[in-house]
Description:
Layout: H1 2-9, H2 48-58, H3 61-74, H4 79-91, H5 95-108, H6 113-125, H7 129-142, H8 147-152, H9 161-172, H10 181-193, H11 197-210, H12 215-227, H13 231-244, H14 249-261, H15 265-281, H16 292-303, H17 308-316, H18 319-325
Amino acid sequence: MQAEWEELARRNWLEDSEDQQPVPPTVSPAEKGYYFNTNNPYRDWPNVFAEAQEKAREGDLNTAVLLLEAAILQDPQDSEAWQLLGMTQADNENEQAAIVSLQRCLELRPNNLPALMALAVSFTNSGMQREAGDVLRRWICHNPRYKHLVQDSRSPSNSSLQDVLLLFQEAALLNLDCVDPDLQTGLGVLFNLSSDFDKAVEAFSAALSVRPQDYLLWNRLGATLANGNRSEEAVEAYTRALELQPGFIRSRYNLGISCINLGAHREAVSNFLTALNQQRRSQRCSQQQMSANIWAALRIAISMMDRPELFQAANMGDLDLLMRAFDMSDV
């Protein structure tokens, strides 16, 4: 159980990182293909991309994924659909699918700046530091405002994280009279990668000064605060993210982790059950489509409550029993 907790704590810029570095997966997501849902009921529907955008805004992430997969099956060259699919999978705590989708988007449109930034975040969450740094350098290379910095730089294309950080800091000096929230987001990611969490908090806070309604930024701020052992502040940031986007599974999961760190085990369980129920809510979302990471975190939280009968239910994946045990309605 301790090993399981340590593995969870390394994900999503969570707590207890200390000096441990995540071990990259043995097979890179780049080497894997995207696995589409079989028997997609939206396969031949018209206007599926617009419908997917609406479902994503509503927080119905599972339905949005099915609609986006249908859009791609109808037009495999639709880079915008691949981009939104990647971002939606990341929100839904499915990093593997997010990485593959965003990489496909960038094959079709290499200068897609939002997709590059999203991919850098997904690589960071997956412990793939070198890949994250490479993508952030590409973001600078393709950004019309900053690409001259790379052309003027003598750093090689396979720059170290420190080289990429210097590029972003140099770019920030070009914006002394204003804040570029995208650049600050990149700085926040890079400072997280170098474990300089106070500076990462400053960067994400600067980005939020321009985009206060950006739920992704609030989640990234929360995760950074949690990494810096500031769990109470992290809870406030996650809560703000969920106020802006109640269906944001990743932030709900992160909030549960911070609750564990604060000793609020029942609140943690409540958040994990809410996240799992949100994933299940779509009638076509099977048990296998629910996040294994959330189930693992739920087992840890329940184990800390000394409720062996409920721990067994969590091991069995009995969500209905757990919802009843914690007086949570299936809404």
